[in-house]
Amino acid sequence: MRSRFPVAIEEVLAVACMALLVLITLVNVIVRYLTQHSVAATEEISVFLMIVMTLAGATAAAARDRHIRIEYFYQTGSWRRRRGLALFAAAATAAFFIVLAWLSGRVVWDEFRYAETTMALGLPRWWYTIWVPVLCVALALRAIGVAAAVAAGGLSPAQHVDDSGAGAGTVADTGAAPAAAARIERPPRE
Fold first, then answer.
1. Around Cβ 150, how many Cβ atoms within 10 Å?
2. 8 Å CB contact between 21 and 50
3. What are the angstrom distances between the C-alpha of 25 and each of 20, 41, 44, 142?
4. 3-class SS at 171?
């Protein structure tokens, strides 16, 4: 499944957040060891980075259709069941994150409207929270992309199940396979 927007965008964002978290934590540990005092503002920044990292990673997982699911029901099912479950999962994911984007957008608006500031740095709180609805919309769009690919007649690489008979019902790794191998075609009628 090809996307107009490469998943590398979300991956780079998640990795950058993780690297900054490690750096901030390391600096805080060293400062606390040398001075016996912690840098209070780092917790505020760390929480923000963890939220962005989580949503960016979830968006990359959604784009690859690698979210958690109960594989037993998926793998043991027919082509129709696998397709139906894939459509349901993608639609439920998109719906959930659209609602979450709406609700977190309302929180951001309230923080902006009431000029709320953070405790440690005194920055406008919405500077931190604006990224939650943005990343929720990105995640919903990625899930809609998966649903569109499934509806178009194929399933994403994560859902590729070997129907050849040898090891039927096992998930095949098609991460580097050609695009044709990343689709599950309807089995021939017997």
1. 26
2. yes
3. 8, 11, 12, 32
4. strand
pLDDT of the residue at 150: 87
Range of the domain at 77: 8-182
Do the domain assignments include residue 163?
yes
Q: Does the global pTM surpass 0.85?
A: no
Q: Kindly state whether residue 188 falls inside one of the protein's structural domains.
A: no
Structure tokens at 185: 């075609």
Q: Counting beta carbons within 10 angstroms of the beta carbon of residue 166, is it exposed (0 to 12), middle (13 to 18) or buried (19 or more)?
A: exposed
Give the count of domains, the chain: 1
In a domain, 70, yes or no: yes
Helix axes 79-113, 131-151, angle to 10 degrees: 160
Model confidence over 161-180: pLDDT tens digits? Answer: 443 433 333 343 334 333 33
Please report whether residue 1 resides in a domain: no
Q: Are 87 and 150 in contact (CB under 8 A)?
A: yes
Backbone angles phi, psi at 171, to 5 degrees: -80, 130
